[in-house]
Design a protein that fits this description.
Blueprint lengths: L1 H8 L6 E5 L3 H15 L3 H7 E5 L5 H8 L9 E6 L10 H16 L5 E7 L4 H4 L11 E3 L6 H11 L3 E2 L1 H10 L4 H18 L4 E2 L1 H8 L7 H9 L3 H15 L1 H21 L3 H4 L3 H7 L10 H7 L5 H18 L8 H13 L1
Helix pairs in contact: 4-5, 7-8, 7-9, 8-10, 9-10, 11-12, 12-13, 12-18, 13-17, 17-18
């Protein structure tokens, strides 16, 4: 993806692109970059950028449109959204003819057209068939963000900003792991932090204020109370989180966070893992970038939890998660929470 961005910004634009995957925000961003690279003037872009939708046209009709000369400019940009739902001709014979038409076009694309195919998820069996297989060499994947901390750090750095380690931990815990959500929230935090200080650093307080996290009652304070095995404080913080975020959603967030906490402790139960360098331990624990800073915390936490404690906690968390998903009966979320805390620390 970095190489693709570098080429587009340098003005090297290909005649065909196939953007594939669920991260629509990033696909839109790259399409916008291509648009700016092709059209120096906004008026030219407005007249010669065409947004089409897969359900409205066949591949044959699309090729015909791509073969038409643009108006008053050297190039035109055609973006086909929902390409995974491209309209199918009425017969298999017609379908074959349309697919062959696309193949011939791709062998010698019109030099005056930049064609961007934008598709979401496609069945594995279908993506190996025309017209999708025909576009294999033009394909650029935009999968779900699997390491939001790395993605957020990179996006902030591109704007000249850095996250403090605890700020990044707070941000990636509470934010939805989608590019759109992450990028919008980073923009908001940078605007907020710029008014606060000339130092280009995003602090935990910036995250709390902008994302709407309580400075006192959040999962990080819960983690500290849990590490101290303080049942009363853990229960109190958890109840406040549920009041702030909604009973079910708040408890779901708590369960998700604590599951990660205990799985990391379980991985650290192996002596040879604890003897590895911090950077290697971080990889095993699923920590990336600035999150490596917190490895030392987890190494400290292991002194307060036996392997049996950890395995019982993971079992209790799975049971609570199953109840929240409707697989087990329960009277209400507060009951579920207090029962969970008893099993974790009682």
């Amino acid at each position: 993806m970095d190489a693709l961005k570098k080429n587009i910004l340098a003005g090297f634009v290909s005649p065909v692109y196939f953007f594939y995957g669920p991260e629509s925000y990033l696909k839109e961003e790259f399409a916008s970059m291509i648009r700016s690279a092709i059209f120096p003037l906004e008026n030219d872009a407005a007249c010669n950028t065409h947004i089409l939708y897969g359900p409205d046209l066949t591949t044959g009709e699309l090729v015909s449109k791509a073969s038409e000369y643009p108006m008053f400019t050297a190039k035109q940009l055609i973006i086909v959204r929902q390409f995974e739902k491209i309209k199918k001709p009425t017969t298999k014979e017609l379908q074959k003819q349309h697919d062959e038409k696309l193949t011939r076009y791709l062998a010698s694309p019109a030099e005056f057209t930049v064609l961007v195919f934008d598709a979401d998820q496609i069945d594995k069996k279908d993506i190996e068939k025309p017209p999708f297989s025909t576009l294999k060499k033009y394909r650029h994947d935009f999968p779900i963000i699997k390491t939001p901390d790395l993605f957020a750090s990179k996006r902030a750095r591109e704007s000249g900003w850095e996250f403090d380690p605890d700020a990044l931990k707070a941000f990636t815990t509470y934010i939805q792991p989608s590019a759109r959500e992450i990028c919008h929230e980073i923009e908001k935090m940078i605007m907020y932090a710029s008014a606060r200080s000339t130092e280009k650093r995003i602090t935990a307080l910036d995250v709390y204020d902008c994302v709407g996290i309580s400075r006192t009652y959040n999962v990080f304070e819960l983690e500290k109370a849990l590490a101290e095995r303080n049942l009363r404080l853990c229960s109190g913080i958890s109840l406040m989180i549920m009041d702030q975020e909604g009973q079910k959603e708040g408890l779901s967030n708590i369960v998700r966070f604590l599951t990660t906490f205990y799985i990391r402790l379980w991985k650290l139960s192996l002596p040879h893992v604890r003897q590895l360098p911090p950077s290697e331990i971080a990889k095993i624990l699923g920590m990336f970038g600035k999150q490596e800073y917190f490895v030392k915390n987890y190494l400290t936490y292991t002194r307060n939890f036996s392997l049996q404690d950890t395995e019982q906690a993971i079992s209790a968390l799975r049971e609570t998660d199953a109840a929240l998903k409707g697989l087990l009966p329960y009277p209400d979320e507060k009951y579920l929470l207090l029962r969970l805390m008893q099993k974790l620390l009682g």
